[in-house]
Amino acid sequence: MKFAHITDCHIGAWRNPKLRDLNLKAFENAILHCIDSTVDFIVISGDFFDTNIPHLGPVKKAVELLQLAKSHGIQTYMIYGSHDFAMTNISMIDILHSTALFIKPTGFEKNGDVLKLQFFTDAKTGAKITGISGRKMGLDAELYEKLDRTGVESEDGFKILLLHKGIREFTTDISLIKDCIPLQYLPTGFDYYGGGHIHKRIEETVGESRVVYPGPLFGTNYEDLELTAKGERRGFYIVDFDKKITSCDFIETNVADIVVRDLQADGLSPAELERKLAQTASSLDVKDKIILIKVTGNLNGKRSEIDFGKITASLYARGALVPILNTNSLTTPEDRGSLEVRGTSKAEIEGSILKEYVRTFKVDPTASTAVKENIAKLCKDEEMALKLLETFKTEKIENETVAIYDDRVAAMAKSVLSLDGD
Fold first, then answer.
1. Which of 401, 387, 320 is nearest to 87 (CA)?
2. Final residue of a domain: which of 218, 252, 286?
3. Is the pTM higher than 0.85?
4. pLDDT, tens digit, for every residue of 257-283?
5. Catalytic residue (one of 83, 164, 197, 199)
C-alpha cells in the first residue's frame, strides 16, 4: 500500500501569470504521477491555496485535477494551512469540502480545555488519519498544548498525523523558530507525521516514526525560487507501507529551469551598475528559463537613473520565461538616513523597518486612551505588530465591495489585537 504526501501547493500564488501557471503545472505533475504510481490515497498538509478566497481560474483547474485523482479511486485528505484559513469568513477549502471532493480529517471532541483528535480510517488501506489545521498568526499553537495525548497514542493500527506547523528541533531558519512548536508537543506513536508550512524539505526519523516536510511544489516568492536555483529540490513524497513504513521516496516536480546571479553594487554609479547588469544578462543562457538577478549594496547615485525595464525587456527578447530583477537590498544615498534597514528577504526588510519605526515612534497626545493602549501594546510586542502588518496586506477579493472588504480587514485586525466590538 502507498500514499502520496503533498503540501504547500499555494494554488493561485504569483501575480505574474507565467509563474502562476508554472505553480499550477507543478501540482498537475504531482497528481498525474500519483495516478501513474497507483497510490491508494493522497494527503495534503495545508496551504493548498495561497489565500482563503483565491482566483477562480486556478481553482477550476485544481478541482479538475482532484476529481481526476478521485475518478482513479484515489481519495484525498486535506487540512487547512495558514493561507487557507479565514478567521472571519468561509474559506474555499470549506466550499470544496462540502462537495465531498476530499476529506478533511480534522475533527475533534472537546472536553473542557482538552481536545481529543478523531481518526478517519481510509477505506482501502485501513490507515488511520487525523490532523491539526494551520491558523494564521500562530493561533494553532495552543491546540497542541491542549491535546488529549493518551487517546491518540493508544490507538492501534498504521497512523498518520498531518500538521501545518514547524518543529523547533528540525528547523534551522531562525526567522521561523518563533512559529514552531517543540517536538514534545506532538503525540507519540504515529508512524508518519506529515508536515507543511516550512518551505524547505525535511526528513527526520524519531524512533520508528518518520517526520517529513516535503516543502512547496514550486514556491511563492523570490526566496523560494532562489533556493530552487541553488539546489533545493521541489516536489512531494510517495510512502510505501504495510504495518510499518517500508520506503519513503521524494518525487521531484521540476517545471522550469531557474538561473540565479548576485551582483554587488557597492561604490558603482548608476551607469556602471546598468552596464554590469547588461553584461550579466547577456552572458546568461536564458531561453525558456526563469532568470533571477539580485542586486545588493550601496549605489553611488540615484536608483531612478537606471533603466531596469530595458534589462528586463532584453531578457524577454532573448526568450527568458520570466526575468526578475531583485533590488530590495540595493540602497542609495537618498535611502540612507536615520532609518537603519537590514535584511535581504521581504520579511526581513519589513521586520527591520518596523523595529526602527517602533523605536522612534511618538504617540499623538490627543489620541484616545484606547488608541494609546493599543499602540503601546504593539510597540512592546513586535510579533503582534508584524501580524497586524500582515493583516493590512490582505488583498481585496474580486467583486468584493469596499465596505465588505473594510469590515473583513477590521475584523481580522481586532482578532490580532484581541478586541471585541467596535
1. 387
2. 252
3. no
4. 999 999 999 999 999 999 999 999 999
5. 83
